[in-house]
Amino acid sequence: MLTEIENILLQIDRFLVFPDEEWSLCSFPFLVAFIIFYAIYIGVSHTGRKATLTYVTAFSLFFAWKANGLLMFLLPATALFSWWATRRMMAHWHHRRLRLALIIIVDLLPLVYLKYTNFLMGIVNDIIGSNFGPVELFLPVGISFYTFQAISYSIDVYRGTYTARTRLLDYLFYLTFFPLLMAGPITRANVLLPQEREQRPGKPGMAYRGLWLIMLGLVKKGLIADYIADYNNWIFDDPTAYSGFEDAMGVLGFTLQIYFDFSGYSDMAIGLAALMGYELKDNFNFPYQSLNPQEFWHRWHIALSTWFRDYLYIPMGGNRCGMLRTCFNNFFVMLVAGLWHGASWMFVLWGAIHGVALVLHKICRRLFLDRIPDTVVVRVVCWIMMFVFVAFTWIFFRSRDLDTALALINHIGSDFSLDYFVPFLYARPMWLVFVVVGLELQSIRSDDCHWLQEEFVKLPWMVKFLIALVVIMLVVTFRQDSVQPFIYQQF
Q: Which of 204, 272, 365, 466 could be a cystine partner for 369, CB 3.0 to 4.6 Å?
C-alpha cells in the first residue's frame, strides 16, 4: 500500500515539476490543445481586448509549463521584473544608463547561471587545476529568446524608439506569446505590442496565410528535416564507422536538416500568430542562395542577426570607426553569437570561423571583389564556394567535440570516392529523394514563394482543406519512430 502511494506521489511530482518532452508545435497533443484554444479564442476575441489578452497569456503560461515544468515561473518572473524596472527607469531622470545596465544584468542572470555555469566551471578547472564537478541544471526551453526580447524592450524604451506606455497585461502577453516561446523568432516590442490594440482576429486572408505557413513548416520540419535526421545523427556520432562519401552525405544532410528544422519552426510560429491575427516578420530568406558571408547573415535567423546588429554591433561602433575596428566588431559579435547558441567551445569555434569569414570578405571587398564583374559564372562560383563553406562550418556546430569534427573532416578528405554512390543509392533511396527535394527547394525565388502563398489564399476552402489533409498524411506516413526535437529549442 505504501509503495503504491509513493508511486502515485512520484507521478504527481513528475507531472507538476518536469516538462513534457513530447510537447512541441508539431506534436499531436499541442495540435489538439491549439484547436480547443483557437475555437474559444474566436469567441473571446469578440468580447474585448482585455479578455483576449488575458486568455492568450493564460494559454501561453500553460504552454510554458508543459515545455518547462515548474521552471516556467522564470518567464513571468522575468516579465514582471523587466516591466517594473523599465517603468522605474523612465520615471527617474537621474542615472538612467546605470538603471538600464542593472536591468540587463538581472535579466541575463538566470540565462547565464543555467546555461553557462558548468562551462565556466570547466574553464576555471583548466586554469587553476581544480576539480569542481558539474552542477545538474535544467535549461528552460526558449530562455535565450524571451530574455533577449525583454532586454530589447528595455533598451528601446530607454532610447525612445518605443515610447508607448505599456500596461502589465500587454507586456505579459508580449513576453509570453506562445508561438514565439520555444525558438523565437525574437520579436521587438514595436512589432507586436501595437497589434495588441487592434481588434482580433486579423485582416481578411491572414488566417489562410497562417494556414499556408503552418503547412509549409510541417513539410519542412515533420517531413524533410525529421526524415533525414536519423542518418545524420549516425554520421556525427561515429564518422569513422562510415566511408568518406557517406560522411560527406551526412554533412550535406545536416546542412539541410538544420535549415528545414529551424525555418520550419519559424514558419509554424509565424503561421500560428497569423491565425490569431498577428503579423510577424520572416526569420529566413533562402539563406543558402547567399553569395557571400555578409549576405548569408542577412538571410539566416534574421531576428537574431538584427538583434546583435542593433544592440551590440552598432553600439560598439559598427562600421563607423575605421576598417580595423569594423573587423574587430564583426569578429567579436560572431563570437558572442556562437556562445549564445550554447556553452561549448565548439559553438565559439563555429562563431569564430564565421567571424573570420566576415572580416576577410570586408577586406577583400575593399581590395578587389567590388571590381569583379557580376556575371552568371561569377555568381555560380560564389554560390558554390559559399554553400560549401557554410556546410563546412556546420561540422563544428553539430559535432560533440573537436576530435569528432576533425575525424569527420579527415575521413571525408582521405576516403571520399564516387564509387560509393551507387551502393548508397540502393541503401538509402528515400533519404536521397528528400535531400534532392530539399536542395531543389533552395532554388525557389522569394517572389515565387509569395506568389504560391497568395494563390493558396485564393483557393476554395474545400481545396485548402484537401491540401492540408495531404500534408498531414505525408508527415504521418514518413514520420520516423523517434521524433526529433527542434534543434533551436535547446538554445
A: 365
pLDDT digits (tens, 9 = 90+) for 415-466: 888 888 999 999 999 999 999 999 998 888 888 888 988 888 888 888 988 9
110: its cell numbers: 538566470
Q: How far apart are CA 54 and CA 34, in angstroms?
A: 16
Q: How far is it, in rounded angstroms, from Cα 5 to Cα 344?
A: 42
What whole-number distance in Å separates Cα of residue 98 and Cα of residue 100?
5
pTM of the model: 0.89
Sequence-separated (6 or more) residues with CB below 8 Å from residue 126: none
Tell me the three cell numbers of residue 232: 545524420
Average of per-residue pLDDT values in the chain: 87
Contact 40, 55 (CB under 8 A): yes
101 membership: H or E segment, kind and range: helix 96-128
Q: How far is Cα 183 from Cα 191, in angstroms, rounded to an integer?
A: 17
The domain in which residue 134 lies consists of 2-197
Half-sphere exposure (Cβ direction) of 171: Cα atoms closer than 13 Å: 26
Q: Is residue 150 located within the same domain as residue 248?
A: no
Same domain, 149 and 228: no
Q: How confident is the model at residue 20 (pLDDT cuts 50, 70, 90)?
A: low
What is the set of active-site residues? Answer: 341
Q: How far apart are CA 8 and CA 14, in angstroms?
A: 10
